[in-house]
Design a protein that fits this description.
Oligomer: single chain
Number of helices: 14
Radius of gyration: 21 Å
Helix content: 55-70%
Strand content: 5-15%
Structural class: alpha/beta
Mean pLDDT: 88
Number of strands: 5
Low-confidence stretches: 243-247
Strand order of the largest sheet: 2-1-3-4-5
Order of helices and strands: HHHHHHHHEHEHEHEHEHH
Length: 294
């Protein structure tokens, strides 16, 4: 199986916000039931999506394929990969709905988050990750920012970096983040987290930081987004969101996975110093816990 087959469904999901309405309906058909869609002819697919055959051709060409046959083959392989990856999980289908039992909800959330992590690991750009690690290693100060659920991920990054002795600051308020970004300079790094990559406050934070001379890193689900455009390095997640998007199910877990990889890369590259810092911080916290119990 080639790389195109392994990441096809991931790339379709990532492309959906930027597609034309007719192409978005086609993409929705493929991500909702890829196995069934892979068996449709161009004409049948166009009819089901209430669009033209030209839109179907434009869609698969946008995905990087010259021929529909090759697109369908890779789609079938992508479906097989997903079935293999989830074979150990309870069999579930569809999105969460009002009639699901708690057991069904658990199964569907587990499936969603498991595949969000697996897809992100498969599609994460290793060169971009290595560059982000390099920037954080060399940074004299690291500012991070996010809004909503992404703010929790941003805070997690700051706390992890602080544990290994890095000067890291997380901002909860947009105005504070902007004023801080304006004081950054070469040698500093700004990290912004946004699932959509279109959150205005977050994009502005990264844009101001870049104008100030800082290196900029974005963690987002969409490489073709305003946030990515403001970043020197973009780390792209491949989260699967449900109709409960406001709960940030797949996006948050995928972002945390990227943060863990980023942190671990920095810690490993400064192994002795980081291990010593982790031991010291653990002892302080552990000692505090013991004293409270005694």
């Amino acid at each position: 199986m080639g790389e195109d087959a392994e990441t096809l469904l991931i790339r379709i999901r990532a492309a959906m916000p930027a597609l034309r309405p007719s192409e978005r309906r086609i993409a929705h058909e493929f991500v909702t039931d890829p196995a069934a869609a892979a068996n449709l002819s161009i004409a049948a697919l166009a009819a089901r999506c209430e669009t033209s055959t030209t839109s179907v051709v434009r869609f698969y060409q946008r995905m990087g394929y010259a021929h529909y046959k090759d697109f369908r083959i890779d789609l079938t392989r992508a479906v097989a990969r997903e079935e293999l990856a989830t074979s150990s999980l309870p069999e579930v289908s569809g999105d969460i709905d009002r009639h699901d039992s708690l057991e069904g909800i658990v199964s569907k959330v587990a499936m969603n988050e498991t595949m969000s992590i697996a897809d992100t690991a498969r599609s994460l750009d290793m060169d971009a990750l290595a560059e982000a690690v390099r920037l954080l290693l060399a940074a004299r100060r690291i500012d991070s920012f996010g809004v909503g659920a992404s703010a929790l991920v941003s805070l997690d990054l700051q706390q992890k970096l602080s544990r290994i002795g890095r000067t890291a600051i997380n901002w909860h308020d947009a105005h504070s983040a902007w004023t801080s970004a304006a004081t950054l300079a070469p040698g500093c790094v700004a990290v912004a987290v946004s699932h959509t990559g279109a959150t205005v406050d977050t994009v502005e934070f990264l844009s101001i930081a870049r104008k100030s001379g800082a290196a900029t890193v974005a963690i987002t689900n969409f490489g073709d987004s305003p946030l990515a455009a403001a970043a020197d390095v973009t780390l792209t997640t491949a989260a699967r969101e449900t109709k409960f998007r406001s709960g940030a199910l797949g996006s948050r877990i995928a972002q945390l996975m990227v943060v863990d990889c980023l942190f671990t890369g920095v810690a490993q590259a400064s192994y002795d110093v980081s291990m010593e810092a982790l031991r010291n911080t653990y002892e302080v916290v552990h000692d505090r816990v013991v004293r409270k119990r005694s």
